[in-house]
Amino acid sequence: MGNALSGSERWPVRHESAKAFAAMAEGETLTVGAGCYWGTEKWYAKHFAEDWKTNGDGAVLATAVGFMGPPGVKPNPTYREVCSGTTGHVEVCQIRYDSTKTTYEDLVSHLFTFHDPTTANRQGNDVGSQYASVIFTHDETQKETAEKVVRKVQGALESGKITNFQYANKTVKTRVEHATTFYPAHEAHQKYLEKKPEGYCNHRRRFRWEDVFVGDRRDEL
């Protein structure tokens, strides 16, 4: 993931340890893979409130990074094992959110504004199955919503609303799969880009959802 520089900032989410995060009973759960989990976490913990106009209301409660894979993969993999690309795990960010202040659909939609879903198992310089674009769903309603958003993004690519300047290719490769066990990464990687904001990150704002999907903003809750 490259070298990181010194510095720090404070993101508007709870600062729980990975163990405390796993024990949280409050909120609903979103789990996504979008390349290096450092950047994925930053774009939810820091930028979701900015981009979706939920500043200060605590829509995103807490985040943690770790690994998730298909059934039967090695339990409790190390970071180095996952980086080998041989374990079947994906680097993911898990988000706990307040469903009275935002929606699962908004959170999934946000995913497509900061990573490229058209490059299978790759985000920029990061190449390998551990960097796949995946939405791990926790129930059938989440699955249906995630698939709807994927279709919407694909439609925008086909219509030219999303261009090659924003994404590399014309076909969305994001997988929608059932969530399995979430294995938290070690504490040094939790909120890494908050601790070192000049650190390595392959994510960027590709577009604002409301600019591409005019009139498709979320309903007031």
3D structure, described in words:
By secondary structure, this protein is an alpha+beta fold. The protein has one domain: Peptide Methionine Sulfoxide Reductase, Chain A. Helix content is 27%, strand content 18%. The protein is built from eight helices and eight strands, in the order αβααβαβαβββαββαα. The strands form two sheets. It has a six-stranded mixed β-sheet. Strands 4-5 form a two-stranded antiparallel ribbon. Helix 5 crosses helix 6. The N terminus is likely disordered.
What is the domain tally?
1
How many beta strands in the DSSP annotation?
8
Could you tell me how far the N terminus lies from the C terminus, measured between alpha carbons in angstroms? 38 Å
Sheet with most strands: strand arrangement:
7-6-1-3-2-8
Helix content: 25-40%
What fraction of residues sit in β-strands? 15-25%
Mean pLDDT: 91
SS class: alpha+beta
For the sheet with most strands, the description reads:
6 strands, mixed
Topology pattern, helix = H, strand = E: HEHHEHEHEEEHEEHH
